[in-house]
Specification:
about 200 residues, alpha/beta, 6-stranded mixed sheet
């Protein structure tokens, strides 16, 4: 997602340097290795000169995320790539941007920032595919594939194919989907939600 966001920002604003920030759990090992670090690496793969303000601690929830964003818009208004690392945090992130007069796009062209989230859901779907919202990406975590993967892992441990414990610990990553108007049509996103979560969203007109 970081690479895609960086490409889109540079295409729209080649003269404005990339300044990124992440909101989440800076001290959480798995979140850092599975979300924060890959995002930063992706951005830097497109623009090695990009500035990273680091992962801000938003573990207290959406209100904390909102306040962090409001403070950042004052101290670092040049921020233009934001990774909000959970859907509940993104509620606060977008509210903070709205209060600051930001969070907007002009028919798909980023005006002030591009926002990415995690846990693609019905609420995020409406914003991601709204051409005037700066929330444009979400890492869709599929319960079907994740559930099957966990069952497979349990059976591998039970059969002795995988050790019950290991030192150092070994991380297992299951499939995630990069959901955005640049990578998935709106119809495909609706199908994804209905399949993974049993929702009954109508096909887009």
């Amino acid at each position: 997602m970081g690479a895609e966001m960086a490409k889109q920002w540079k295409a729209a604003h080649p003269d404005k340097p990339i300044v990124m920030v992440e909101l989440g759990w800076p001290n959480h090992t798995e979140v850092k290795s599975g979300r924060t670090d890959p995002f930063v690496k992706g951005v830097l793969s497109v623009d090695p000169t990009a500035t990273d303000l680091g992962c801000q601690n938003a573990e207290k929830g959406p209100d904390a995320a909102k306040q962090i964003i409001k403070d950042l818009m004052t101290s670092h208004p040049e921020v233009n790539l934001i990774y909000s690392e959970a859907s509940n945090l993104t509620v606060g992130t977008m509210a903070g941007l709205t209060e600051a007069g930001r969070g907007k796009m002009d028919n798909g062209k980023p005006l002030t920032e591009i926002v990415a989230s995690v846990d693609f859901d019905e609420v995020e779907y409406k914003e991601v595919y709204d051409p005037n919202s700066s929330l444009k990406m979400s890492m869709g975590l599929p319960p079907l594939e994740t559930g099957r993967g966990r069952i497979d892992l349990i059976m591998d441990v039970a059969s002795g194919k995988v050790p019950m414990t290991s030192q150092p610990a070994v991380e297992k990553f299951y499939k995630a989907y990069n959901i955005s108007p640049w990578t998935m049509t709106e119809a495909e996103a609706v199908t994804w939600l209905n399949t993974q979560f049993g929702t009954n969203l109508p096909a887009p007109k």
